[in-house]
Protein backbone atom coordinates (compact mmCIF):
# COMPACT_ATOMS: atom_id res chain seq x y z
CA UNK A 1 0.00 0.00 0.00
CA UNK A 2 0.96 3.65 -0.31
CA UNK A 3 2.26 5.89 2.46
CA UNK A 4 -1.23 7.26 3.04
CA UNK A 5 -2.43 3.90 4.35
CA UNK A 6 0.43 3.81 6.85
CA UNK A 7 -0.34 7.34 7.98
CA UNK A 8 -3.94 6.28 8.45
CA UNK A 9 -2.76 3.51 10.78
CA UNK A 10 -0.23 5.59 12.70
CA UNK A 11 -2.27 8.77 12.97
CA UNK A 12 -5.12 7.44 15.08
CA UNK A 13 -3.99 10.09 17.58
CA UNK A 14 -5.14 13.65 17.17
CA UNK A 15 -8.35 15.44 16.35
CA UNK A 16 -8.47 14.36 12.69
CA UNK A 17 -7.39 10.83 13.54
CA UNK A 18 -7.60 9.72 9.94
CA UNK A 19 -5.30 10.42 7.09
CA UNK A 20 -6.25 9.36 3.54
CA UNK A 21 -9.37 7.40 4.06
CA UNK A 22 -12.10 6.73 1.65
CA UNK A 23 -14.58 4.10 0.99
CA UNK A 24 -16.28 3.30 -2.17
CA UNK A 25 -19.60 1.75 -1.42
CA UNK A 26 -22.63 3.26 -3.01
CA UNK A 27 -26.35 3.72 -2.60
CA UNK A 28 -27.63 1.00 -4.83
CA UNK A 29 -30.35 3.20 -6.33
CA UNK A 30 -32.15 6.42 -5.64
CA UNK A 31 -31.61 10.12 -6.03
CA UNK A 32 -28.35 11.83 -5.33
CA UNK A 33 -27.95 14.21 -2.42
CA UNK A 34 -29.60 17.59 -2.92
CA UNK A 35 -27.67 19.80 -5.31
CA UNK A 36 -25.83 17.03 -7.19
CA UNK A 37 -27.08 15.82 -10.57
CA UNK A 38 -27.03 12.31 -12.00
CA UNK A 39 -26.39 9.15 -10.07
CA UNK A 40 -23.40 7.20 -8.73
CA UNK A 41 -23.78 6.68 -5.01
CA UNK A 42 -22.09 4.60 -2.37
CA UNK A 43 -23.18 3.90 1.18
CA UNK A 44 -20.92 2.57 3.91
CA UNK A 45 -22.54 1.64 7.22
CA UNK A 46 -20.17 1.04 10.11
CA UNK A 47 -20.75 -0.89 13.33
CA UNK A 48 -18.80 -3.00 15.81
CA UNK A 49 -16.74 -4.23 13.98
CA UNK A 50 -18.13 -4.35 10.47
CA UNK A 51 -18.67 -2.42 7.26
CA UNK A 52 -21.82 -2.94 5.19
CA UNK A 53 -21.44 -1.65 1.64
CA UNK A 54 -24.22 -1.16 -0.87
CA UNK A 55 -24.17 -0.03 -4.48
CA UNK A 56 -22.23 -0.56 -7.69
CA UNK A 57 -19.65 2.24 -7.98
CA UNK A 58 -18.49 3.46 -11.36
CA UNK A 59 -15.41 5.52 -12.12
CA UNK A 60 -15.80 9.28 -11.88
CA UNK A 61 -17.75 11.60 -9.59
CA UNK A 62 -19.18 9.56 -6.74
CA UNK A 63 -21.50 10.41 -3.87
CA UNK A 64 -20.20 8.60 -0.78
CA UNK A 65 -22.28 8.37 2.37
CA UNK A 66 -20.61 7.14 5.56
CA UNK A 67 -23.00 6.20 8.37
CA UNK A 68 -21.57 5.34 11.79
CA UNK A 69 -24.38 3.29 13.30
CA UNK A 70 -22.09 1.94 16.01
CA UNK A 71 -21.45 2.93 19.61
CA UNK A 72 -17.73 3.54 19.01
CA UNK A 73 -15.87 5.98 16.75
CA UNK A 74 -15.17 4.54 13.30
CA UNK A 75 -13.22 5.59 10.22
CA UNK A 76 -12.91 4.57 6.58
CA UNK A 77 -9.30 4.27 5.44
CA UNK A 78 -9.45 3.44 1.73
CA UNK A 79 -6.41 2.23 -0.16
CA UNK A 80 -5.83 0.98 -3.73
CA UNK A 81 -5.00 -2.73 -4.04
CA UNK A 82 -3.74 -5.06 -6.73
CA UNK A 83 -6.46 -7.04 -8.49
CA UNK A 84 -7.44 -10.17 -6.64
CA UNK A 85 -6.18 -9.15 -3.19
CA UNK A 86 -8.52 -10.68 -0.61
CA UNK A 87 -9.88 -9.32 2.65
CA UNK A 88 -7.82 -11.93 4.48
CA UNK A 89 -4.60 -10.77 2.79
CA UNK A 90 -5.38 -7.12 3.51
CA UNK A 91 -6.09 -7.82 7.19
CA UNK A 92 -2.86 -9.79 7.53
CA UNK A 93 -0.82 -6.97 5.96
CA UNK A 94 -2.48 -4.37 8.20
CA UNK A 95 -1.81 -6.37 11.35
CA UNK A 96 1.80 -7.05 10.38
CA UNK A 97 2.64 -3.30 10.31
CA UNK A 98 5.27 -4.31 7.77
CA UNK A 99 5.94 -1.94 4.83
CA UNK A 100 7.02 -4.88 2.68
CA UNK A 101 3.76 -6.71 3.34
CA UNK A 102 1.77 -3.66 2.25
CA UNK A 103 3.98 -3.20 -0.79
CA UNK A 104 3.16 -6.69 -2.07
CA UNK A 105 -0.57 -5.98 -2.27
CA UNK A 106 -0.60 -2.23 -3.01
CA UNK A 107 -2.26 -0.94 -6.14
CA UNK A 108 -1.48 2.20 -8.11
CA UNK A 109 -2.88 5.66 -7.55
CA UNK A 110 -4.42 7.27 -4.49
CA UNK A 111 -7.84 8.13 -3.14
CA UNK A 112 -8.81 11.59 -1.93
CA UNK A 113 -11.65 13.76 -0.77
CA UNK A 114 -13.44 10.87 0.94
CA UNK A 115 -15.37 10.75 4.22
CA UNK A 116 -13.49 11.20 7.48
CA UNK A 117 -13.66 9.65 10.88
CA UNK A 118 -17.08 9.89 12.57
CA UNK A 119 -18.30 9.90 16.15
CA UNK A 120 -21.03 7.38 17.15
CA UNK A 121 -24.42 8.05 15.57
CA UNK A 122 -23.10 10.53 12.99
CA UNK A 123 -23.53 10.43 9.22
CA UNK A 124 -21.83 12.36 6.41
CA UNK A 125 -21.90 12.59 2.60
CA UNK A 126 -19.20 13.77 0.20
CA UNK A 127 -18.90 14.02 -3.56
CA UNK A 128 -15.47 13.20 -4.96
CA UNK A 129 -13.84 11.39 -7.87
CA UNK A 130 -12.91 7.70 -7.80
CA UNK A 131 -10.83 5.77 -10.31
CA UNK A 132 -11.70 2.29 -11.54
CA UNK A 133 -9.91 -0.42 -9.59
CA UNK A 134 -9.78 -2.74 -6.59
CA UNK A 135 -9.75 -1.14 -3.12
CA UNK A 136 -9.46 -1.95 0.55
CA UNK A 137 -11.24 -0.31 3.47
CA UNK A 138 -10.00 -0.44 7.07
CA UNK A 139 -10.64 1.09 10.48
CA UNK A 140 -7.57 1.79 12.63
CA UNK A 141 -9.37 3.32 15.61
CA UNK A 142 -8.39 1.60 18.86
CA UNK A 143 -11.02 -0.57 20.54
CA UNK A 144 -11.45 -0.56 24.35
CA UNK A 145 -9.06 -3.52 24.54
CA UNK A 146 -6.36 -1.42 22.85
CA UNK A 147 -6.35 -3.36 19.56
CA UNK A 148 -7.25 -1.51 16.34
CA UNK A 149 -10.67 -2.24 14.91
CA UNK A 150 -9.06 -3.88 11.88
CA UNK A 151 -7.71 -6.59 14.20
CA UNK A 152 -11.32 -7.31 15.19
CA UNK A 153 -12.27 -7.81 11.53
CA UNK A 154 -13.22 -4.28 10.47
CA UNK A 155 -11.78 -4.59 6.97
CA UNK A 156 -13.35 -4.98 3.52
CA UNK A 157 -12.42 -5.06 -0.18
CA UNK A 158 -14.53 -3.67 -3.04
CA UNK A 159 -14.32 -2.69 -6.68
CA UNK A 160 -15.02 0.43 -8.72
CA UNK A 161 -15.99 -0.47 -12.29
CA UNK A 162 -14.70 1.23 -15.44
CA UNK A 163 -18.23 2.27 -16.37
CA UNK A 164 -18.74 6.03 -16.56
CA UNK A 165 -20.48 7.86 -13.73
CA UNK A 166 -23.33 10.22 -14.64
CA UNK A 167 -22.98 12.19 -11.39
CA UNK A 168 -21.86 15.81 -11.46
CA UNK A 169 -20.86 17.97 -8.46
CA UNK A 170 -23.54 20.02 -6.68
CA UNK A 171 -24.14 23.55 -7.94
CA UNK A 172 -26.96 24.78 -5.71
CA UNK A 173 -26.44 25.76 -2.09
CA UNK A 174 -22.65 25.56 -2.36
CA UNK A 175 -20.37 27.72 -0.19
CA UNK A 176 -16.63 28.01 -0.75
CA UNK A 177 -14.09 27.03 1.90
CA UNK A 178 -10.37 27.56 1.24
CA UNK A 179 -7.48 26.04 3.19
CA UNK A 180 -4.23 28.01 2.92
CA UNK A 181 -0.91 27.82 4.74
CA UNK A 182 -2.09 30.48 7.15
CA UNK A 183 -5.62 29.34 7.93
CA UNK A 184 -9.11 28.32 6.82
CA UNK A 185 -11.34 30.86 5.09
CA UNK A 186 -15.10 30.43 5.40
CA UNK A 187 -17.96 32.86 4.61
CA UNK A 188 -18.22 35.77 7.04
CA UNK A 189 -21.55 34.44 8.30
CA UNK A 190 -20.04 31.00 8.96
CA UNK A 191 -21.30 27.80 7.34
CA UNK A 192 -25.01 27.23 6.80
CA UNK A 193 -26.81 24.40 8.59
CA UNK A 194 -27.68 22.79 5.26
CA UNK A 195 -26.14 22.80 1.80
CA UNK A 196 -22.67 21.96 0.52
CA UNK A 197 -19.14 23.15 1.25
CA UNK A 198 -16.68 23.06 -1.63
CA UNK A 199 -13.38 22.68 0.22
CA UNK A 200 -10.32 23.67 -1.81
CA UNK A 201 -6.76 22.93 -0.73
CA UNK A 202 -4.65 25.97 -1.64
CA UNK A 203 -1.49 24.61 0.01
CA UNK A 204 1.39 22.58 -1.42
CA UNK A 205 0.68 19.41 0.60
CA UNK A 206 -2.27 17.00 0.86
CA UNK A 207 -4.65 18.05 3.64
CA UNK A 208 -7.61 16.55 5.47
CA UNK A 209 -10.52 18.54 6.85
CA UNK A 210 -12.74 17.56 9.78
CA UNK A 211 -16.02 19.12 10.89
CA UNK A 212 -17.05 18.81 14.55
CA UNK A 213 -19.80 20.07 16.83
CA UNK A 214 -18.92 21.17 20.37
CA UNK A 215 -21.00 19.26 22.91
CA UNK A 216 -20.43 21.35 26.03
CA UNK A 217 -20.86 25.06 26.63
CA UNK A 218 -17.58 26.91 26.40
CA UNK A 219 -15.70 23.95 24.90
CA UNK A 220 -12.59 24.90 22.90
CA UNK A 221 -10.64 23.37 20.06
CA UNK A 222 -7.66 22.83 22.38
CA UNK A 223 -9.82 20.80 24.79
CA UNK A 224 -11.30 18.71 22.00
CA UNK A 225 -7.89 18.18 20.38
CA UNK A 226 -6.40 16.95 23.67
CA UNK A 227 -9.35 14.62 24.36
CA UNK A 228 -9.22 12.97 20.94
CA UNK A 229 -5.44 12.72 21.06
CA UNK A 230 -5.70 10.66 24.25
CA UNK A 231 -8.71 8.66 23.13
CA UNK A 232 -7.32 7.54 19.79
CA UNK A 233 -4.01 6.60 21.34
CA UNK A 234 -5.63 4.19 23.81
CA UNK A 235 -9.23 3.56 22.81
CA UNK A 236 -10.29 4.68 26.28
CA UNK A 237 -12.30 7.83 26.98
CA UNK A 238 -11.20 10.28 29.68
CA UNK A 239 -14.61 11.65 30.58
CA UNK A 240 -17.20 12.88 28.09
CA UNK A 241 -16.00 14.02 24.67
CA UNK A 242 -16.01 17.84 24.29
CA UNK A 243 -17.03 17.48 20.63
CA UNK A 244 -18.64 15.11 18.15
CA UNK A 245 -17.01 14.57 14.75
CA UNK A 246 -19.78 14.99 12.19
CA UNK A 247 -18.03 14.96 8.82
CA UNK A 248 -15.09 15.96 6.68
CA UNK A 249 -12.94 14.94 3.73
CA UNK A 250 -9.57 13.20 3.75
CA UNK A 251 -6.43 13.58 1.69
CA UNK A 252 -7.43 16.54 -0.50
CA UNK A 253 -4.46 17.04 -2.87
CA UNK A 254 -2.80 20.41 -3.53
CA UNK A 255 -5.07 22.57 -5.73
CA UNK A 256 -7.76 19.89 -5.35
CA UNK A 257 -11.30 20.15 -4.00
CA UNK A 258 -13.91 17.99 -2.31
CA UNK A 259 -17.60 18.57 -1.69
CA UNK A 260 -18.94 17.94 1.82
CA UNK A 261 -22.67 18.00 2.48
CA UNK A 262 -23.69 20.24 5.38
CA UNK A 263 -26.42 18.91 7.66
CA UNK A 264 -25.67 20.45 11.04
CA UNK A 265 -27.54 21.07 14.27
CA UNK A 266 -27.68 24.48 15.92
CA UNK A 267 -24.70 25.30 18.12
CA UNK A 268 -20.97 25.96 18.02
CA UNK A 269 -18.80 24.08 15.56
CA UNK A 270 -15.19 23.90 14.45
CA UNK A 271 -13.57 23.13 11.10
CA UNK A 272 -10.06 21.65 11.38
CA UNK A 273 -7.39 20.90 8.77
CA UNK A 274 -4.20 18.89 9.13
CA UNK A 275 -1.16 18.31 6.94
CA UNK A 276 -1.37 14.67 5.78
CA UNK A 277 2.38 14.46 5.26
CA UNK A 278 2.93 14.61 9.02
CA UNK A 279 2.04 11.69 11.29
CA UNK A 280 0.47 14.07 13.80
CA UNK A 281 0.39 17.68 12.65
CA UNK A 282 1.59 19.78 15.62
CA UNK A 283 -0.10 22.89 14.23
CA UNK A 284 -3.52 21.99 12.81
CA UNK A 285 -5.48 24.86 11.32
CA UNK A 286 -8.93 25.51 12.73
CA UNK A 287 -11.78 28.00 12.61
CA UNK A 288 -14.77 28.19 14.98
CA UNK A 289 -18.26 29.21 13.84
CA UNK A 290 -21.84 29.08 15.07
CA UNK A 291 -24.81 27.49 13.34
CA UNK A 292 -28.01 29.39 14.16
Key attributes of the depicted protein:
single chain, 292 residues, mainly beta, Immunoglobulin-like, 2 domains, 11-stranded mixed beta sheet, 5-stranded antiparallel beta sheet, 38% strand, disordered N terminus
Cα gyration radius (Å): 17 Å
Q: What name does CATH use for the topology of the largest domain?
A: Immunoglobulin-like
| Arithmetic mean pLDDT | 86
Largest sheet: 11 strands, mixed
Instruction: Please count the helical segments.
Output: 4
| Integer tally of domains | 2
Low-confidence stretches: 1-32
Proportion of strand residues: 35-45%
Structure summary, number of beta strands: 16
What would you call the structural class? mainly beta
Distance between the termini: 43 Å
CATH superfamily of the largest domain: Cupredoxins -  blue copper proteins
CATH architecture of the largest domain: Sandwich
Shape: globular
CATH class of the largest domain: Mainly Beta
Q: How much helicity do the residues have? A: 10-25%
N to C succession of SSEs: HEEEEHHEEEEEEEEHEEEE
Overview of this protein structure:
This protein is mainly beta. The protein has two domains: 3-164, Cupredoxins -  blue copper proteins (Immunoglobulin-like, Sandwich); 174-291, Sandwich (Immunoglobulin-like), CATH 2.60.40. It is 13% helix and 38% strand. It has four helices and 16 strands. The chain has helices at residues 3-10, 87-96, 99-105, 221-234; strands spanning 41-47, 50-54, 58-68, 77-81, 114-115, 123-130, 133-138, 155-164, 174-179, 184-185, 194-201, 207-214, 243-252, 257-263, 267-275, 285-291. Strands 1, 2, 3, 4, 6, 7, 8, 9, 10, 11 and 14 form an eleven-stranded mixed sheet that branches. Strands 5-13-12-15-16 form a five-stranded antiparallel sheet, with no helix packed on it. A hairpin with a 4-residue loop joins β9 and β10. The longest helix is centred in the C-terminal third of the chain and has 14 residues, at 221-234. The radius of gyration is 17 Å and the shape is globular. The termini are far apart. 49% of the residues are buried. Residues 1-32 have low confidence and may be disordered.
Amino acid sequence: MNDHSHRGRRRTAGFLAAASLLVPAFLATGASAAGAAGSNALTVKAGEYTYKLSGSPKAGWTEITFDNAGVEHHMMAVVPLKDGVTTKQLKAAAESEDDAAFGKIAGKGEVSGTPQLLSPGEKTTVVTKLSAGHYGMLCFVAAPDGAPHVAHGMVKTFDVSSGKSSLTPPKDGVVDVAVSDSGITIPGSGLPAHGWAKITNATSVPRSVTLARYLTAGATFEQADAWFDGFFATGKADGEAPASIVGGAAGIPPSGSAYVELDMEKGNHVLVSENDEQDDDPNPLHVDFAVK
